[in-house]
Amino acid sequence: MQESKYQELQKQAEKSVRDSITLFLDWPNKGVGFQDISNLFLSYENFSNVLDYYEYRFNDADLVVGLEARGFILGTAFAQRMKLPMMMIRKKGKLPGPCFRESYKKEYGSDEFEVQEKALSKVVAKPGKKFHVIIMDDILATGGTMAASIELTKKVLLNNDIKDFKISTSLISSIKALNGKEKIYEKYNDVSVDIIIEM
User: Fold this and answer.
1) Hey, what long-range contacts does 158-165 have (CB within 8 A, 24 or more apart)?
2) Could you give the domains of the chain?
3) pLDDT at residue 105 is higher than 90
4) Is the full-model pTM beyond 0.85?
């Protein structure tokens, strides 16, 4: 990875995200600062800059995982650009068939995520290469959502006989005061956390 090229793409992505984020205070509950990235998807140039960065940063990816809901947009766009499969992790009750389930706490409540047990039944790992999974979402807050997603991803990989793998997580932004990045690193020493900007 050429440092100068990487830094150039990273700076472009950072500027595009900063230009796109709107902060809403006391939403959806009092005391919560909500980072809205909707404007990122309204600008072809800004969204493309983010995807350019991801394409360079995760050029050895084998699978993209998108989290409901904005992770679906990010994950699908990146997977299509890279010609990769994209697996969905959804809220409880949205997926048919046998599912793995994980509960998690977030900044303003709790919820459950699910993934189909056989979601990767048609995905084949390349022999001799560590299978690289990129989990994509928009904002990292407490880390609860991402931790649940990591657990589900590991379960479905093993259940589909993919045992030699590594997991990277990718976020547009984070709420730095909530220490989500540190919590992920404390829990998982084998997972990387990539955040374009920390606010």
Assistant:
1) 159/100, 159/117, 159/118, 160/118, 160/119, 160/120, 160/121, 160/123, 162/120, 162/123, 162/125, 162/131, 164/125, 164/130, 164/131, 165/125, 165/130, 165/131, 165/132, 165/133
2) 60-198 (3.40.50.2020)
3) no
4) yes
